[in-house]
Amino acid sequence: MDYQRAAAAKTVPGDAMQPVALSQLALSHVSLALAAGESLAVMGPSGSGKSTLLHVLAGILRPTAGSVYLRGNDLARLGDAERTRLRRSEFGFVFQSGQLLPELPAIENIALPVMLGGTPYKQAISMAFSWLDALRMTPLAQRRPGEMSGGQMQRIAIARALCIRPSVVFADEPTGALDRKTGADVMRILTEACTQNGSSLVVVTHDPSVAAFCSRTVRMSDGLLVDQGASERSAR
Amino acid sequence: MSSFALWRLFHRGGNRGFSSTSLLAVIAFAAASAIFLTVLGGVHAFVWRSSPSHGLVEAFSGQSAQSGENAIYVILSLFACMLLLVPFASLSASAARLAAARRDARLAALRLAGATSGQVSRLTALEAAGQALIGSLIGMVLYVAMIPLIMPLHFQGRGFAVEELWVGPVALLVVAVLMTVLALISALSALMRVVVTPLGVSARVAPAALRKWRLIVFLVAIIAAVGIMKSPLSRYFGQAVAIAIVFGVIAACFALVNLIGPWVIAARARMRIRRPRNAATLVAMRRVLDNPKRAWRNVSGIALAVFVAGITSVCAYVGSAAQGSSEDMTLLRDIGTGGMLTLAFAAVLAAVSCGVMQAGNVYDQADQYRMLVLEGADRATLSKARFIEVFTPLKVVVLVSAACSMVLMLPLLGSAMTQPLTLLGFVAGVALCFLLVGIGVAAANHVAKGIGIVGERSDD
To answer: Do B28 and B141 fall within a single domain?
Structure first.
C-alpha cells in the first residue's frame, strides 16, 4: 500500500495530439519507480532533464504525455488545486538556497508549511520545535535566515521539509551552496531524518559524494534515463 | 567602458523582471507627478482668482476684504500642497529605491567584475533619472486629462476654468526637473550599500525595537493641546492668534503622528503575531515587523490626510448647516471640499505606493514565493498575506488619526461631530482610501500571477 510508482514519459513524434520534436523533449521514455523509504539520487550533466524529472514527479509540471502515479493516483490527471493539496500533505522540498522567508525566525519558517495545511499556530510551532530538537538546533529557533550560516539554513530547510511528515522529500542540489564537509553533514542529516520519518527521498545532484548517501543512483542524459541503478524495480 | 555603454548593455531587453520593475517605477513617478501638478493647478487657480493680474504678490498685497478672502484660499491650497508633499516624496523615493534595489545583485556582480563604484553609481543614476523623466512626462499627460474632472468642483461658489487650472510650461518643466533630481538622490542613497561592498549582501537581522518614549511624548502633547484649546484663556485670543494656534497644533500633530506611527503599527503587528490565525497573517505580520517604518511610510500620507479631513469635515458641516449665505460659510464649505479632495489625492498616492511596494516584494522574493507555492500554499493565501500586510497598518493609522482629530475638535465643535452628515462625509472619505489601497494591492497580486513556480537553478 505504501508503495509508490512514478513514471513519466513524453510524447514521441507522430503523436496526433501534440507533435513535439524529439530534440525538444526535456524527458523522453523515462520510467522510474520509487519504493517507500527508498532514497534515490538523480545524476547527470546540466540540461539532462534532472530538474524537469523532479518537477514532474512532484506534480509541479504536468507531463505532455505519460503518467505519474502516487499510491495508485495519477498526478498528471489531477487538477491544480488537488495537486497543491497533495504537495501540502505528501511532499517536502529542500532546494539549494533561498527557500526560507527572510522575515520569519527559524521556528516559524519550519512551522509555516504545517500552518498552510490549516494547523493552528501553537500546534504548528510545537511540531516545529520537536523537529528542531530532534536535529539539535534549538538555539537557532529565534534566529532569522540572515543571521545563520549556509549549513544552518539548509538544516532548517530540512526540518521545514520534514515537519509535515511527507511521504516523499524532493531535494534539488541541497548541498550546492555548501562546502564539502558541511555538505556531507547536511546530507547525513537529510538521509537520517528521512529514514526516521519513513519518507522516500529524491536528490538531484551533480556531486557523486552526495549521491553516495542514497541507496540507489540513476543517471540521466538528454532527457533519457540511461542507468536505472542497482536496486531497480520495474515500473508498470 | 563608459557608463552609457554599460547602460546600453543593460537595456538590450529580453529580461522580463527587469522591464516590469522599470514599468512599476515609471507608473509610480507618473502618478506622483500627475497629482502634484493637479494640486499645483489648484493653487494656481486661487492665485489667478485673487487679482486681475493673476500674480502671487498681488494676492497678498491687496487691501480690500475681497483680497483678504482670496489670500486665505491661496494659503489653504498651499497648505494642502504641503500636506501632499509627504506622500509625494515617499512615493518618489520608494519608486527610486525599487529601481535601485532590483539592480543590487546585478550591480554587485558588476563591481566584482571590476566596474568602479563611479561607473556603477552613474549607471544607476542614469536609470532612475530616466524613469523619473518618463514618468513625469506621462504624469503631465494625466494632469491634462484630469483637468476636466477638476473643473466642475465648486470653490468660492463657482467651478474652475481651464486657464485657472493650467499651470503653464515653466511649472511643468520645474516639476519634471524636480522629479528627476529627487529620483537621483533617492537612488544614489539606496545604492550606497552596494557601492560600499561589492558583495552586495543585504543581511537581514532582527530590527531594533521602537522605543516606548514615542508613545509617552505623543500622549503628553495631545493632552497639552486639548488643555490649551479648552482653557478659558482661549476666549481672549484674537482671530489671528487662534488660526496660528490651530495651524501650530496641526503641524505639531503631524510631527507627533510621524513619531508614533511606526511604533503603533509595530505594536499592533506584535499583538497579532502572538497568535496568528493562519499562515497568511503570520507572513504578513512578520513582514510588517521586519520594517515598521516602511509599512508606515506607505500609509503615512493617508494618516495625515485623514487627520485633516476629520477637521475639515466639521468645517463643511458648519458651512452647510448655517442658514446664512455669507462668505464665511462659503469658505467653511470650501475648506470641507478641499479637505476631502486632499484625502482623495493622498489615497491615490498611498494606493500607488502600496502597490509598488508589494510588487517590488514579489520580485525580490520570487524564490521564497516559489518555495511556498511548491509546499502547497495556494495563491489565494499569498494574495491574502499581501492584503493583510497593507490593511493592518492602514486600519491602525486611520483609527489613530481619526481619533486624534476627533479629540482635538471635540472641545471646539462638540455638537457638529456627532451629526450624521459630518460623520457620513468623513466615513465616505475613509472608505475611499481603503478602496484605492485595495486596488493598489490587487494590482500587485496581478503582477505576482506572472511569476511561474518553476524557477531556474543558478547552476543550470
So the answer is: yes
> Which residues of A fall within a CB distance of 8 Å from B457?
51, 96, 172-173, 176
| B28 occurs within a structural domain | yes
- A58 and chain B: CB distance < 8 Å anywhere? yes
- Tracing cell 503570520 back to the chain, one arrives at B282
Asked if B457 lies within 8 A of A173 by C-beta distance, the reply is yes
C-alpha dist (Å) from residue B307 to B339, B405, B440? 10, 5, 22
Which residues in A lie closer than 8 A to residue B385 (C-beta atoms)?
none
Q: Does one domain contain both B132 and B174? A: yes
For A101, which residue in chain B has the nearest alpha carbon? B368
- Domains, in order of start, for chain A: 4-227 (3.40.50.300)
B367 and B399 within one domain: yes
Same structural domain, B125 and B232: no
Q: Which domain does B43 fall in, by range? A: 1-205
Count of structural domains, chain B: 2
Amino acid at B221: A
> pLDDT over 90 for what percent of chain A?
8
Question: B144 with B252, same domain?
Answer: no
Averaging pLDDT over each range in A76-85, A113-122, B306-315, which range is the top one?
A113-122
DSSP letter string, B414-438: HHHHT-HHHHHHHHHHHHHHHHHHH
Question: Looking at the structure, do residues B193 and B301 belong to the same domain, yes or no?
Answer: no
The residue among B205, B233, B251 that closes a domain is: B205
A81 close contact with B: CB closer than 8 A: yes
Q: B456: exposed, middle or buried (C-beta count within 10 Å: 0-12, 13-18, 19+)?
A: exposed
DSSP helix, strand, coil percent of chain B (3-state; round to 5): 80, 0, 20
> Of chain A residues 3-42, which have a CB less than 8 A from chain B?
none
* Å between A167 CA and nearest CA of chain B: 13
Specify whether B278 is located in the same domain as B408. yes
Q: Is residue B211 part of a domain?
A: no
| ipTM confidence | 0.75
- Which residues of B107-228 form beta strands (DSSP E)? none
C-beta separation of A173 from A204 below 8 A: yes
B245 shares a domain with B198: no
With an 8 Å Cβ cutoff, are B365 and A81 in contact? no
Q: List chain B residues with CB under 8 Å of A172.
A: 457
* DSSP-based helix, strand, coil % in chain A, nearest 5: 40, 20, 40
Please give the Cα distance from B264 to B275 (Å, whole number). 18
Best residue in A101, A170, A172 to probe B by mutation, most B CBs within 10 Å?
A101
How does pLDDT run across B45-76, given as a tens digit for each residue? 888 887 666 655 554 554 444 556 677 788 78
Sequence-distant (6+) residues with CB within 8 A of B176 are B33, B133, B136, B137, B140
Residues of B in contact with A89 (CB under 8 A): 376
Q: Which of A63-67, A192-196, B158-162 has the highest mean pLDDT?
A: A192-196
Closest residue to A99, CB basis, from B371, B377, B458? B371
Contact status of A104 with chain B (Cβ, < 8 Å): yes
- Distances in whole angstroms, Cα of residue A103 to Cα of each of B3, B69, B74, B85: 35, 54, 46, 31
Query: Is the pLDDT at A37 greater than 80, yes or no?
Result: yes
Q: Which of A47, A122, A146 sits opposite B460 (nearest CB)?
A: A47
- Does B420 map to a domain? yes
Q: Per-residue pLDDT averaged across A64-71, rounded?
A: 82
Query: Is B436 a domain residue?
Result: yes
Q: Between chains, do B459 and A51 touch, taking CB under 8 Å as contact?
A: no
Q: Which of B152, B178, B205 is the last residue of a domain?
A: B205
Residues of chain A found within 8 Å of residue B275, distances taken between Cβ atoms = 121-122
